[in-house]
Amino acid sequence: MAKCWSLSTTIRNPERNAPFLRVLQEFEGEPFNSNTQANLFKRLIQTKNYMPMGLPKRIKDKYEDPEEFTHEELSEILSLASYENKSIDNIEDIYAMRGRTAVSNLNKMCAAVARDSHGPVRITPLGMEIISGTPDFSNIFLRYFLKWQLPNGVDRGFNDFNIIPFIATMHVVKQVNEMWFSMGNNPVGLSKIEFALFIPTLTNYKDINDTANQLIEFRCNCRKLNGEEQKNYIDTQFIEKVINVFSLQTDDDFEIEKKINTLYDYADSAIRYFRMTNLFYYRGNGRYIDLSPRRSVEIEKLLETFSGESLRFGDIEEYFDYMSNLNMPQLPWENIGDLQAALINLREEATHIQAKIESEFQGQSLHSFTFDTAISGDLTILNNHIKETREIINLLNVDYSILLERSLSNIDTYISEISKLSSRRRSISGQDPLNLEWNVAQSLMALDDAKEIIPHYNVGDDNLPTFTAPGNTPDMECHYIDFSMICEVTLLNGRDQWYNEGQPVMRHLRDFESNNHNENNYCLFLAPSLHRDTVNTFWYSVKYDYEGARQKIIPLTLDQYTKILSIVKNKYFKHSIRVNQRTLKSLFDIVYSKVDEHNNSGDWILSIDNCIDTWEKSYLI
């Protein structure tokens, strides 16, 4: 039987599940028998959503191309891949087993029904939302976690549990904050250490009060100790916890350390996913996770409505229907009174942020908003006003970041993080694209005197990103006095860079140009390396035209971009020379002007390093 819960075994990033869902959709309506399972596994390989181990380099290189493998290439890959199983002799049965494994998380998420014993394959409403063009992942996560419970009939080994982990965690955090405040302290939520020690092993909602009390006792004991004594106390608490919870031998150091690491891994996963609901946020530079004050009305209503006790279902089909229904459960704050309270709370926060900007950066505010004191009594209007006010708060937070970053105090961090991402191999973590967007956006805020920088990634209430920019928009927009630009970033290096970025980048820039009647519109394109097909595509639009007019696309490698950041830093700290929007524009114009001096894209790209050197020298003047 399981002893703790983990999101890593039940839900994965929906963005990464979407390709698997699209392939599974091809088999919708077919019985999920061994033949379908084997064919699904082969299609995952053929569509380049799965790479078997042990393939030669020439095959691996083809994974960079956007086209599917041909049937002949698929046959070759299957012949080269070594699949053995002690209990299965037939290779088709091994493929079938792999197919079942590939969709196991989709089944657990209730994004699809692909089980031999449950009729034909079908994609649920939740699954259809994930593979739609513009999925609302925050709503997906919120609805999912409000319902995901143990036991549930899908995940095995949890019959002794009685908990909705998301709700129970919220109750613990709220109680800990209230107890900590009553002791004369400012509430801080839970530290990551506290979360790992107490939350994954909370398996029954009836233990919420005891868990909160134990956590406060642990915190108080920690505060009494310093340095090595505190570290030893924490280590001892973790050792005792895993020995008791997992029934380990006291001298089994290997298993003890393994289980401690497991608790930390489970905590990191839970924190990451819970935060995506926007009801949790980071504080203390990411050292603590707390309930979002911006959502206090919604959180209070949830905790009044849900105790954390699991529900009972007649059968697994009833559970599947409940989990996959994006309209369930009904959100308890969807009434006029609570929505009015939420709007008042948001407007107060927006006013507070504006006051903070004016206090710290007198006369430098980039935007100013006033709010109507009247509050509507219409549900639709209230929801629209709440959405608009959240967008205003996000914009004000970006304004604050722009003004704060102009000191260049964090520029070394952004250079380091972008350089690390640039040097990563093809095996990219699910967070890497998001981290790249975040670090580039922050560096642009530090780089110059922008009027407005608008990243299109979603952010939580801690102003940190949760999801990458949607595919139908540029990654970020930047507006200056003399010009405007979009910025597009990618970690793709191969021909799939051209497939995913070539036409979309030019289309995004043209749409941006149509909406911004400034004649000086640019696109800054950043990637670890520039694939020749991508460059050739951009070359034509820059040299000749795209939809009837030339475009100003500035393609740079991430190394070239970090070199520019380093130049900006050195000029400022060594020579007291500050970059401004005209300085940045001059660099773009130098790169753009070189197009007319060359007859092919390769020579143009090779000239960019010299362009940066020329710009650096002129920067001294």
UniProtKB/TrEMBL annotation:
Keywords: Endonuclease, Hydrolase, Nuclease. GO terms for molecular function: endonuclease activity. It comes from the Bacteria. Pfam families: RE_AlwI. This is AlwI restriction endonuclease. The lineage of its organism: Bacteria, Bacillati, Bacillota, Tissierellia, Sedimentibacter.
